[in-house]
Design brief:
Length: 211
Amino acid sequence: MEYLTFALGKGRLANKAMEMLAQVGVTCEEMKDKDSRKLIFVNEEMKLRFFLSKGPDVPTYVEYGAADIGVVGKDTIMEEGRKLYEVLDLGFGKCRMCVCGPKEAGAYLQHKDLIRVATKYPNIARDYFFNKKHQTVEIIKLNGSIELAPIVGLSDVIVDIVETGSTLRENGLEVLEEVCPLSARMIVNQVSMKMEHKRIMDLINALKEVI
Ligand code: PRP
């Protein structure tokens, strides 16, 4: 039997994913050692391998077949636009992709003004403004703390993830428009889906039972 390899986005999503996988009997003892510097963890009995990577790299590993299966946020799947199968909404990590800004910026959206949009997700922002809203905007790519941009005058609005809404509230910003809902998804390499069809489908069906 070949190894089935899982790529998990580092952080909260990976922990949640491992909890959910444990519920269907997919476990990895090696991974529980938090002090370990190992990058790849193996369950020899079940012929499974697991590794953690930066979220945006998960779809890359899965598209190229370095991982058969990945767990990553819908935001990352949309932004990366890789060739892969998105097979399951895992139901955790729920949040929303939104256009946010100071209340006054709502008018710029209504009037379709040429505004500046700061975001960690330029592809999602471009698709939303250009293809859905038909509003020409200037997109500015940032790498984090996106809420800063409208506060210091770098942009008029932002496109970013909103979970509890507290970052917005504490910085005098609000949701102006919702782009789409988000949650953690399971993705599968297109060749693996054929070659390991039964193992992968059994896993998907078992997960569907616990979601
Ligand atoms: C995310 C997101 C928002 C915040 C939303 O940032 O970009 O800033 O969480 O959460 P809330 O609605 O519950 O306040 P993250 O913590 O991932 O860090 P980042 O600023 O580096 O993107």
